[in-house]
Structures are given as structure tokens and as C-alpha cells.
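ugh finaly. both done.
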Amino acid sequence: MATYRYRAYTAQGVVTAGTIAAEGIDAAIDALYTAGLTPFETSLSEAGDEVPASAPQKSQPIWRRELVRSNQLGLSELTAFTVEMAALVNSGLPLDVSFRVLAGPGTSPKRSRLATDLLQEILGGAQLSEAMRHRPAIFPQDYVAIVGAGEASGRTGEVLGQIGDMLTKRLEIRNKIRSSLVYPAILLLMSLASVAVIVFVLIPNLSPIFADAGLPLPGILGVLASIPDYWLPLTVCLLGGAALCAMLWYKIRKSASLALKLDRIKSRAPVFGRLLQMREAGLFARSLGTLLDARVPLMTALQIARSLIANRYMNAGYADAIARVPEGVSLNQAFAGTDLLPPAALQLIAVGEQSGQLARMLIRIATTLDGELQRRIEQMVSLLTPVLTLVIGGAVGALIMQVMSAVLSINNLAIQ
């Protein structure tokens, strides 16, 4: 057991220092959190042998270093972190005190470590958006841009609340999609199990009867009967196809021209393209509205909002429309005829430009588009279950009919 020196924040935000005995540096940090402290410096007490808290020990298993001590947050954890942070900041607490509360007892280890890391950078003089920008794997680009706009206008708590609402809606959509896909997934697994029973149990028992009669298995049963004999070539073909698809995908990601063509295909797809267009339009409108509300110049706000568009083909379209604004063209006229924004959104933008409420109108457009996107996704997922049920049920039913036909024909073979 070793002795470690530490410096930590108490629940009241006071810096305290001392020593603690523990089996390792991780155990020391966990003990400090259990005691209601938030450590920001922890090292061995022996002179000249300091081990910073962020450095993993050599004896620590790799799975613990990479998984247990990871600061990566999923969408649900990031949403909870943002909502709690917005509630604390909006309650009037200073930003540093809010992060000390977020890092205190009762918080999940990942969120506690993230809050501690952000707090250290903030105390070092960094802005919140700057500290978040150093963690692109946790905070998306639009998240950081909106927080930066809120800091510029002194409305950090308000924009954090907006981000929390946005992430909550995304989480709701994802959870609804997952819950709606549970039944189709179970149906698919059961159908695959039924096919496996037919191929590896029923067909091997029927094959000798038809072989003795000198007749092939009827219908598709003959094709299925050959699967066990050719499983190795089929497996090689499947693995080769998967490798070829992976290589093609890697080449597309590395080639700007191929990626642009792929994004163009996606944006023009019959159903998916419309959903993608609504998602990008909602993101653009929300980011632009928040930036304008933070008194960011129009052209700067437009360029920042455009940089958040992930689809390269649509991004180029937004760039062409934005390039017309410095020529004296109004925003709604610049996007007219581009199909990037819905006609109703262009009308609201025109009203906002005339009334001087462009930022508010853009946020209203984003809210409307997000709601419409959620409704369409829910409709598609709700239709997916009956369609899959009919398709899988029909395929399995047809296969079972083939098996029943073969079984019934055994009597004819016996008579012959």
C-alpha cells in the first residue's frame, strides 16, 4: 500500500490538500470521490517519483485502462450531462461550481472525470467551448459552435438548455427506433432458426427417401439440400464480398470526388434523401439562429452554420447560396430554388428579415423541422414491422409449404 498526495475541491468549492493511503492511484481517486472530494491532482508522496492521475500504471490491465477509465460518452450520457449542466448554470451557480457539483458523489465515473477535466481547463483560463473543442470524440461540432455562440452573448445557460432539448429529442428518436425494431429482430431470428432446422434437420431426413427413388427434392429444397456440401465455398464468397465492400467503402471515404458522388446519391434518394435534407436544414437553421441571437455577424454565422453540414453535396449547395448574400441578395432569396430549405421555411425567413426577428424565426424553423423529421421517422418505423412480418412470414411459409409437399409426396414414392 502506497501513500499519495492529493489536492481536491470540497463540496463547498474550497481547495484542500492532504495524503491518503491506497493500493493504487485509481483506488486513491475513488476513495477521494467517496469522501465527497473532487481531486484534480494526485501523485505518489515519494520525492522524485510522482505519477500523475492521468497516467495509467503498468500493472493495470489494458481492458481497465481502455474501458473503465475511458471518458467517452454515449448519446444518453451526453444528454444527461448536458441537461444537468444546463440546470446548474441556469440556477445561477458559477460555471466552476457547477462542474464541481457535476463531478461530486453520485455521478457516474465517466461524467465525473469529464467534469473534472473540463473544470481544470476552465480554471486554467480556457473558455467552456474551447475546453469542449479539445474533446471532439465527446462533443459534436454543432454542440461546440452553439456553446461558443452562447458564451459570446453571455447566455451560456440558455444555449445549454437548447442543446439539452435537442439531444433529448435525438435520444427519443433513437430509443423509439430501437424499441420498434425489437419485434422485427426477434421475428428475423426466429425465421433464421426455422430455416436452419429445415436445412440441417428435415432435409437430410428427406433426401435419402427421394435418392432411393431416383428423384430430386422438389422445388427449392434441392438447392437448400446442397448448402451443407458447399458451406466452405459459400463462407469464402461471403467473407470475400464483405472484404470487397470494406475496401470500396475505405476508398470512397479517402476520395473526395467519390464521397461527393455518394453524398449526392444519398441526398437524391426517394425517401432517405428527404429525411437527410430535413435533418441538415434543421441543424443549419438552429445553429444560424443561435449564432445570430448571440450577435455574431451574419456572414460569419452563415459560414459556421454551413460547416456543420455533413453531407458534402448539400454543403456545396449551401456554400453557393451563401455566396450570393454579400452581393446584396436577401437570405430567403439566396436559398430560393435550391430545395435546401422548405418553402414554408423560406417564407418565415422572409418575415424574420422584414421584422428584424430572423434569429427567432430560424430557431422556430429548426424546431418545426425537427418535429417533422421525428414524425416521419416514427411513421417509417411503424410501417416497417408489418412489412417485415409479411415478407418474412411469406418466405418462411412458402418454404414450409415446400417441405409439407415433399412429406406428402412420400406416399406416392412408396406406392411406386
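ok and the 2nd:
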Amino acid sequence: MDIKHLKNIIILSFGFLLLSTAYGGLQTIQSSLNSEKGLGVASLSVVYGCLIVSSLFLPPIVIKKIGCKWTLVISMCCYVSYSVGNFKPNWYSILITSAILGIGGGPLWASKCTYLTVSGIRYAEQTGKEKMDVVNQYFGVFFLIYQTSGIWGNLISSLVLQQNPNKEIYENATYFHCGANNCPTPSTGPSNSTTSSPGIADNLRYTLMGIYTGCGVLAVLLIAILLEQIDLTDQKNEGEASFSIWKTFLGTIRQLKDIRQCLLIPLTMFSGFQQGFLSSDYTKAYVTCVLGIHFVGYVMICFGATNSICSMLFGKLSQYTGRIALFMFAAATSASCIAALLLWRPNPDQFGVFFIFPALWSMSDAICQTLLGALYGILFVDHKEAAFANYRVWESLGFVIAFAYSNLLCVSVKLYIVLSIMLLGMILYLVVECLEYRKPSGDDQNTTEITENTARELADETQTTCL
């Protein structure tokens, strides 16, 4: 493909790479960095709560009013505000910037999808190529660059925080309060005082936030200066755009009339619960409590790298094993990890074990993300937009709940909750499979073959839409 026509896609991809390097790296250490009174996880709960509302209502209006390019720029500024709020965090500054980030998240990802899709279609029309092939290539280039952000963001946090002069405080602990025994402190609530973690030197916090803010600012400048605007005048008029907001919202609600959609809600929420536990509770109660916050980045790099490999591997393997077998494997893996985390008493002498759990957990997550997204596309082929809107809403709700109760419950209780949601989700998923098995065969196989590739593409998109 002509590099000239890929220029805007590469610029867009590196802009998202820089932005996600900042936010992704900050998200994984948030529960440890701002641990006092649970400020870190409270902020993440606000982010995902606002993201749900933002995704349902804002994208059509904002994109129609100012176009894809400036929607990207303004939304990226919302992300940068979150890094700025972490310089001197308190309840008001963090929660306000968290809400701003969540509100900007919906238009950000919607405008990215629109830009890649419209650019691919127009290039295909100019060259006479298949539109889907070109769009797929554009998305492939984007994700090839973007997916590496998990490595760079976490690597930056670990390299900066390993210089922390107070990190030896972890070496003298008894570790009894770590792991499943970790419980929140009784005093919680908003305060105007600074809530920096006592184990983190202020100069390192400022250095880390400065790097993350710089990455965000570079992303904004890259998009604002180098990215070309695309003309959407051939799209819907303003009245139709306004109507589409309510159409999307009402379609999402009507989709719940389908019993299969309702049965898949617990499994969809489990995806959010699982990721929420890993990014907030595992990193804080196991990694930070025993090894120190400077190891959180390395552990999450292990999760991200394994997740990417397993997503590709299990996507191919499903052609031979079928999705039921892989879903059962994912359930067995998650249940085993939860049981082991309940029994394990973490100790720094067991250094390798801290990386084994996220690696195993990423296998389960890769199956759920890839195959559950594909399942949505296959089951609801006639209502894909409403179905995937429900996917985003219920997975994000899982994040919100997981982060919301993080400050209130002991880790052992949270593990039992995640296990219960997983078991309920898998049971109801099997009910869905039974309902599908009993349907008349007809054109089911043809529908599945036609929809499988599209569903996987939408599954990839869904995986990144929740930040």
C-alpha cells in the first residue's frame, strides 16, 4: 500500500500510542499511587461510569459539529487533564479530571473508528480495491502500533519508581496484611488534603506525571498539526445525527428484549470485573504490598504481552476446538487463579509467582475478549450496533462496580465475588449455546461464516473502546 496514503493512519496511530502510554501506565499504578482513602480506584470508577454515558450520547453530536480531527484533539486534551490532576492529587481535582477523561473517551474512540473507516473506504474507491480489505489493513496498522503502548507506559512507571528512596519499607514488612488478607482502612471520604502515597517521593511523582503529561501533549500536537481533516459532508445531516443518538440509546435498551442478550450480561460484566481486579487489587494487595510499586509496571507488561499473543492464538485455535471448549478452559483457568490467590501468602522470595498469575489471567481474558466479542457478532447479526453498545455498557459497568467496592471490601471477598460472577456467567452462557443448538439449522452455518470475521473485527474494537 502506498505510504503516502498511510501517512494519516500512521500519524493517528502514533498519537494514540503516546496518549495510551500515558493513561495506560497511570491506570495500572493508580490504586497504589493514590492509595490513601481509596482515591485511585475511586477515580477509575468515575472514569468508566462517565465513559458509559459518553459513549451512548456524545460521539454523533461532537463529530458532526467539529469533525473527526478536532474531536480527537479535544478528547485527547481531556486525557491530558487526568495526568495533570495527579501532580497534586486530592478528591476534588482527581474526581473532576476523571469525569473529564470519561466524557472525552466516548468521542475519542468513535472519531478514531470513523477516521480509519472513512479514510479506508475513500482510498478503496480511488484505487478500485475492496473496501473491507483496505479498512482492515488500516485497522491492522493502527493496532500494530497502538498495542505496544502497554509496554511503554508500564516500563516508564517502573523505571521511574524504582528510584524511590523509600522502597525499602516493603522489605521489612511481615506481609501478613498482603494478598487475600488485605483489607481497606476504616477511614474513607473526601478531603482537600494531598493524598500522595507515603512510600512515593514527591519528586518522583512529579517526574512521572511530567513524562505522562508530556506524552499526552505530544499526542495532541501530533494530531492537531500533522493529521489532515476528513470531509464528512456526505454523512448524515445534523438532524439525522441528533436522531441517531436516541436511536442508538433506544436500540441498546430494546436489545435487552432478546433473552440471549440478557443471559450474556453476567459473562460480559465478568470481563470488566476480572480486568478491574487485576489492575486495582492485584497490583496493590499483592505486587505493591510485597515487592513495591516499582514492580507493578513489569507485572502488567507481562499481562499485556501474554494477552496479545493469546488473543491471536486462541482466535485461530477456536476454528478447531470450537468456542465452548475455549470458554470452559477460560473458566477453569480463572477459577484456578482465584483459588490460588485465596490460598497464597505472597512473599518476595517467590518472585516469579507474581508474574505467573497475570500471565494465566491474561489467557482467560484473551479468550473472553476475543470469543465473546465474536459471539455477539454472530448471535445478533441483524442488530450489531445495539449488541455491541450493550457489550460496552455491561463490560464498563463491571469495571465501575469493581473499582467502586474496592475501597470497601477485603481482597478475599472480592475474589469470591469475581468467582461468583464468572460461574454465573458461564452457566448462563451454556444456556445460550443450548438455545442456539435447538434452533432450526437453516442458514445458520452460512450466517456464522459470513459474520465470523466481522465479529472478530468488532471484538477488537470493543476491546479497546473501554480505554
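summary for the 2nd one i guess: Residues 167-172, 187-198, 235-243, 443-467 have pLDDT under 50 and may be disordered.
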